[in-house]
Design a protein that fits this description.
about 1150 residues; alpha/beta; globular
């Protein structure tokens, strides 16, 4: 396709009267195209809310909204630019602004009217907008750690095994199937819950549906065999002749499968009936290990006397090797099941069909009790709301309501949609009619589909391209121009990936063909693509040193250029980051280091385990060894042996400390180091108090208090360490119940799912362009001047064998079918269907791996560097491991290595270079000085922390300048009161009598727990008292009464005059009264002891005057009413008016 055609397609895509699905490869400017389309739609709609733009991440939604607003602002303030594409955007934005002015939208002042949101955010909007229509009810905030709830639900269900009903019976069947392994069963059920939106709509169809599964299997088998016959067509006659001859030369005993083909007159049937014969034919080509045969023996029907036929058969095999996709298709046919489900399969599927809805029900109860949900629950709730419950119509009441306000839908990254998200979109389109002026605009790139672990199905994108969506006529467009990369980089990508991608498209298997890109960028700068291969020991060392040198050279030649190191897996970076540090190259890891790997978190986990289990000697000793305690191994040994002459064989460490080391006199009795004596004098009182007062407050508060008093704040090295600690403590708050963590295994899983991300603010100003380190998936949508791809020869481990496997298949006319199977019992092998589904998933994964590498490579603008470890078989290079990314481009890469285009470095007795231990001979223990005294208050913060440079590596505490705000609890209590006042103001004070207040405590307690606060009775009484004060205060009650144009929690988005940063303000309460606009802000504050009301009032006015004046200026920009502003403090109660300037 020429650049001219590409330009024509881009112009067509802006037409607001037509629907399109646009295939936009990497670097093609698809975000800019969506923005132009959005601006074009703004110029024709009656209200901006009629346009819905959906993305898949909050970051993408924010970026798109910002770019739309920047385009509008630029059109408002600047003349038309000279660049043709920018001029198009300017013109469209100008028309949108004219429409905004004509219809009084005030888009520049009210940007929140632009509906650009994530698919999850929109699903939640639907769920909460149509609570009545949805059987699942209101969707609360998504849990940050749903895994803990999955674990609990699985354990609750398994606890019902003793029940004398079908649940108990089927649980017995399931557990027996899994070898009575409760932990394994809980683990597998937990994994299923994470993806329940996929199988829950299917699970009710698996019982008594044998004929359906048979028909789907027959169709899949027929499609595979027809495709195979088509690929073999050029050689089929000669191949059948040679096979008949070979079959006549073997006996039934030596090769029964081949012997049965002696009567074969033509190709077997392309159905399950002919599958056995097809497999026998394929085994003429392939070995038992499913590779091409290199030789043929008498066992395959080619004895020495059949030399000419053998040579001809080998020539046919060589021909087959050159046919793209033929090997994988043959392997897939070999894996197709010949027999349908056994009685054991039927039994376990029946058990799961009965149990899994109960498992989901248990999870829903847990979510309801914690006032949480997950994104699967939100999606299912939205789907439920949009489904019609009226048999006489396919369109739901909710869909009809949305029809009135929703005229145009735009969806970005459409290749990443899942089946249930497609269903949601189809339900939105149910009421649309041809030529009714409504349009849908889908943009994506099948070559960049890489989120199958998030349930994305690229086959759905291909289906819509071929068959449209719902009943809407949709035109396919394909863009080819790349505006990102230099020509040399694009040429390399075209050259390598055109052969790495499949040659034929297949929606069912997720096979995507390659579309070549055309470079639009011309540059005089040197571009480069290089492969660094290495053969020998210490590959990690070679890779780390070379990557470090590349970064150093780029930094020297092009200091302002961006560099990214993109790895497939976080574990592939272990040696690289120390090498960068050794070369003084600043780097920033994004979701790279697990939180549980940070030493400060390891110490906090030990402290948590210690208070949870007094007999956990390892945890207590780890606490004593942590930097904030600082005891060395010599002192720990003294403590452990302090009771060796006593009768107690297993004493508690804390009791040993209290009984033998609390006093100075006792400590002198033992051979402690001088440091140990002084440290124990400081440590034991804190740990003793920690121990004696356990469970008298929340676990979070206990841990935070103990950690602070031991000096934990001073043991931190930077602000990021502190953020990690707060993340951990917040997780404790979300998990604990009654001061304990009931399931430490689930808690550990939750910790493992979190990452530690250093902030750019920690870097010095000259280091504000660090080398970015992230996974390839995380780099999607980004671009960098230079991209480095390490560890391409590394394999990834295979996933666990799930309890249930299912695959959805898209046929040639776009229909969706599914197959489902269970894993075999512990005593038996898996059945054929389960093994086929596993193979099918592995095939899809292999195809996706190619796309992952393509995404990573296309992030590069000027240069691309690839690294991989190679091994030799004699003088030839061995093919990389099959599950590595390198194997996807190996045919082309190996040819270039043979041509000496790339040089493979051969090891020459190189010694391993340990970056972590360089420049130091002894790793000093990190601890405080012996005379350290903790500051004792968390409010002192961690700013200006420094480490002393003496030999003991002690941590010298520093006084901080900026105190840490410790009003978290007060803030959360205030938010809780705000929510209640919001409900009262919305539904009327007459429905909120004082006699109903006590009922609110249950809801308050739940809301506070969600935010990490275990509220005391006193705190709940304070909330109750504050609300009662306001309801009994005449002015407070007047505020809550229904008034003209009354609104609660009104959101205003605005932009600073000197930049493009968008901010949001929320006004608690505003209304019109006697032609005056009132602005009320609630505050949970109250006078402290001894403070006069006047002094308190003056302080509040000084503190919040600017905030209220800012609110007033926002409202003044959209209306002309006089304004009165004020604070209302329910705990006093008191109204403080702040005069409007």
């Amino acid at each position: 396709m020429s650049k001219l055609n590409d330009s024509i397609f881009r112009q067509a895509a802006i037409d607001p009267k037509r629907s399109f699905i646009v295939s936009a490869p990497a670097g093609s400017g698809k975000t800019g195209l969506i923005i132009q389309r959005y601006l074009a739609l703004l110029s024709i709609v009656e209200n901006p809310e009629e346009i819905l733009c959906i993305t898949f991440t909050r970051k993408a939604a924010s970026e798109m909204l910002a770019r739309v607003l920047i385009a509008l602002e630029y059109a408002h303030t600047s003349p038309c630019p000279s660049d043709p594409n920018d001029a198009t955007t300017w013109s469209l934005a100008n028309k949108a602004l004219a429409r905004s002015k004509d219809l009084d939208w005030n888009l520049l002042d009210l940007p929140w009217r632009l509906r650009i949101q994530t698919i999850d955010g929109f699903s939640r909007h639907i769920s909460n907008l149509f609570v009545v229509e949805s059987s699942t009810g209101y969707a609360p905030n998504p849990s940050t750690q749903p895994l803990v709830h999955y674990q609990t639900a699985a354990q609750v269900l398994l606890s019902r095994i003793e029940e004398d009903n079908l649940i108990g019976t089927y649980l017995g069947v399931l557990l027996g199937h899994l070898g009575n392994d409760f932990d394994l069963c809980a683990h597998l059920l937990c994994n299923l819950l994470e993806r329940r939106e996929q199988w829950l709509p299917l699970i009710f169809r698996i019982q008594n549906n044998t004929d359906y599964f048979h028909s789907v299997l027959d169709r899949i088998t027929r499609e595979h065999l027809e495709n195979l016959a088509s690929l073999l067509d050029p050689i089929i006659n000669e191949f059948l002749y040679l096979t008949q001859q070979a079959a006549g030369r073997v006996s039934k005993e030596s090769n029964s499968g081949l012997e049965q083909l002696r009567v074969l007159k033509g190709l077997p049937e392309s159905s399950v009936t002919g599958l056995t014969a097809w497999k026998s034919l394929i085994r003429q080509f392939l070995t038992k290990s499913e590779t091409w045969r290199q030789k043929l023996t008498a066992n395959e029907g080619y004895p020495p006397v059949a030399k000419q036929q053998k040579l001809r058969a080998l020539e046919l095999i060589k021909w087959c090797q050159k046919v793209p996709g033929l090997l994988q298709l043959m392997i897939s046919v070999l894996r197709l099941p010949e027999h349908h489900k056994t009685s054991a399969q039927h039994q376990i599927l029946e058990a799961l069909g009965y149990l899994l809805p109960y498992l989901v029900a248990e999870l829903n109860v847990i979510f309801e009790n914690s006032d949480e949900c997950d994104f699967s629950a939100i999606t299912l709730s939205a789907l439920d709301a949009l489904k019609s419950n009226d048999c006489s119509t396919t369109v739901s009441h909710a869909s009809l309501q949305l029809d009135y306000s929703l005229k145009h839908i735009l969806i970005d990254e459409f290749q990443d949609t899942s089946a249930i998200q497609i269903k949601l979109i189809e339900l939105l389109l149910e009421g649309w009619e041809p030529d009714d002026g409504r349009t849908i605009f889908l943009v994506g790139d099948a070559m960049q589909s890489m989120y199958s672990f998030r349930n994305a199905n690229v086959g759905l994108f291909l289906r819509v391209q071929q068959h449209s969506i719902a009943h809407i006529e949709i035109e396919p467009l394909t863009l080819t121009t790349n505006f990102r990369s230099q020509k040399l980089v694009i040429d390399w990508i075209n050259d390598y990936f055109s052969s790495a991608f499949p040659s034929h498209e297949n929606p069912s298997s997720g096979a995507v063909t390659y579309t070549r890109s055309i470079a639009a960028k011309t540059s005089t700068r040197k571009a480069e693509v290089n492969f660094f291969g290495y053969c020998g020991k210490n590959y990690d060392d070679f890779e780390a040193r070379h990557i470090s040198e590349i970064c150093k050279q780029i930094r020297f030649n092009h200091p302002s250029d961006t560099i990214a190191i993109l790895a497939r897996n976080r574990s592939h970076l272990k040696a690289i980051t120390p090498a960068l540090g050794e070369n003084n190259i600043k780097w920033q890891g994004i979701d790279i280091e697990p939180l549980s790997n940070r030493m400060q978190i390891v110490d906090m986990i030990s402290l948590t385990r210690a208070i949870m289990s007094p007999s956990d000697r390892i945890a207590w000793l780890a606490v004593l060894h942590a930097p904030f305690c600082g005891l060395g191994l010599e002192d720990l040994l003294v403590i452990v042996n302090s009771t060796q002459n006593h009768s107690d064989e297993n004493p508690l460490i804390i009791e040993q400390l209290i009984n033998h080391f609390e006093t100075t006199e006792n400590r002198k009795k033992y051979s402690l180091t001088k440091y140990g004596e002084k440290a124990l004098a400081r440590i034991i009182p804190v740990l003793k108090n920690f121990w004696l007062n356990r469970r008298r407050q929340s676990l979070r508060d206990s841990l935070e208090d103990c950690w602070t008093k031991l000096g934990g704040m001073d043991a931190l090295q930077n602000e990021n360490d502190y953020e990690d600690i707060m993340t951990y403590l917040n997780l404790v708050s979300q998990t604990e119940v009654g001061g304990i963590i009931q399931n430490m295994e689930s808690f550990q899983l939750a910790i493992d799912s979190l990452s530690s991300n250093p902030k750019l603010s920690e870097l010095r100003s000259k280091d504000q362009n660090p080398v970015k380190i992230m996974t390839m998936h995380r780099a999607k949508g980004l671009e960098f001047d230079h991209v480095i791809l390490p560890g391409l020869s590394r394999s990834v481990s295979e996933r666990d064998k799930p309890l249930l496997l299912w695959n959805e298949y898209v046929d040639h006319v776009g229909h969706n079918d599914f197959i489902i199977a269970t894993r075999g019992s512990e005593a038996e092998a898996n059945d054929e269907l389960y093994d086929y589904l596993r193979h099918d998933r592995a095939t899809r994964s292999r195809l996706e791996d190619t796309r992952v590498l393509y995404v990573a490579a296309t992030r590069a603008i000027h240069s691309l560097y690839l690294f991989g470890e190679l091994k030799q078989n004699g003088s030839k290079w061995r093919t990389p491991p099959p599950k590595s990314l390198l194997t996807n481009i190996w045919p082309k890469l190996s040819a270039d290595i043979e041509k000496k285009r790339y040089i493979v470095h051969m090891a020459k007795n190189e010694e391993k270079h340990d970056f972590q231990e360089s420049n130091q001979t002894v790793k000093a223990m990190r601890r405080f000085s012996a005379n350290y005294r903790p500051r004792g208050k968390i409010s002192q913060g961690i700013n200006n922390r420094q480490r002393s440079s003496n030999a003991t590596n002690s941590l010298t505490p520093q006084v901080t300048e900026k105190p840490y705000d410790n009003s978290f609890r007060s803030m959360q209590l205030g938010k809780c009161l705000h929510r209640t006042l919001k409900q009262i103001a919305r539904y009327g004070v007459e429905d909120s009598g004082i006699e109903k207040l006590d009922r609110l405590k249950i809801g308050w307690r739940s809301q506070l727990k969600e935010n990490g606060i275990l509220a005391s009775s006193d705190e709940l009484d304070e909330l109750n008292c504050a609300l009662k004060n306001m309801l009994e205060d005449p002015f407070g009650k007047w505020l809550l009464e229904t008034k003209q144009d009354s609104s609660v929690e009104v959101m205003f988005d605005y932009r600073f005059d000197n930049g493009s940063q968008i901010k949001r303000s929320i006004i608690d309460l505003t209304f019109l009264f006697e032609n005056t606009r009132w602005i009320i802000d609630y505050k949970y504050a109250h006078p402290i002891a001894g403070q006069t009301i006047k002094n308190f009032t003056d302080n509040m006015i000084d503190r919040y005057r600017g905030q209220l004046h800012h609110y007033a200026s926002l409202l003044r920009g959209i209306e002309d009413y006089p304004i009165r502003c004020g604070l209302y403090l329910p705990r006093v109660p008191l109204f403080i008016e702040i005069p409007d300037r």
